[in-house]
């Protein structure tokens, strides 16, 4: 019985060590910008740009993930149809990310056509409706369970 107890302790210690190494490696990848918390949604039609936000979102995520895709979208189509799936608390956006968000919004002021924000945060969905008074284009907020409807709306061509 003592032998079994010692083996369990040994495996438990090895498991803790392995998890620690994985965590350190993951944090290193985030710091280097290799693993972005703002991911491109690639299954959408070419006339729609989609992003998925999870975890901690920084200005680096905007610069590396979103800015080049927005520039490409404007060059290809002349306007922006955008889907944002927000599966993180809005508090996980750094101040720099907020500034990047505003800066990109203003840079492409006349290019916004449709924006769908998908999140379970009521306040964020309501806040996204305010953009229809600030920016040209159509804005809609959806719950995560309504993702299919959001995709249908933002990809619709009229």
TrEMBL record:
SUPFAM superfamilies: SpoIIaa-like (SSF52091)
Organism superkingdom: Bacteria
InterPro entries attached to this UniProt entry: SpoIIAA-like (IPR021866), SpoIIAA-like_sf (IPR038396), STAS_dom_sf (IPR036513)
Transmembrane segments: 12-30
Name recorded for this polypeptide: SpoIIAA-like
Organism the protein comes from: Mucilaginibacter gossypii
Presence of keyword Cytoplasm: no
Keywords in alphabetical order: Membrane, Transmembrane, Transmembrane helix
Pfam families: SpoIIAA-like
């Amino acid at each position: 019985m003592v032998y079994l107890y010692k083996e369990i302790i040994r495996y438990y210690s090895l498991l803790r060590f392995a998890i620690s190494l994985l965590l350190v490696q993951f944090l290193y990848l985030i710091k280097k910008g290799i693993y972005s918390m703002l991911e491109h949604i690639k299954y959408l039609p070419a006339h729609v740009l989609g992003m998925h936000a999870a975890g901690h979102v920084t200005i680096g995520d905007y610069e590396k993930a979103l800015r080049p895709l927005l520039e490409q979208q404007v060059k290809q189509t002349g306007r922006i149809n955008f889907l944002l799936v927000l599966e993180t608390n809005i508090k996980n956006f750094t101040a720099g990310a907020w500034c990047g968000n505003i800066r990109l919004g203003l840079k492409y002021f006349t290019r916004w056509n449709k924006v769908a924000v998908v999140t379970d945060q009521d306040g964020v969905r309501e806040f996204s409706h305010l953009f229809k008074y600030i920016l040209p284009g159509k804005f809609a907020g959806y719950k995560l369970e309504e993702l299919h409807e959001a995709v249908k709306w933002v990809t619709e061509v009229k």
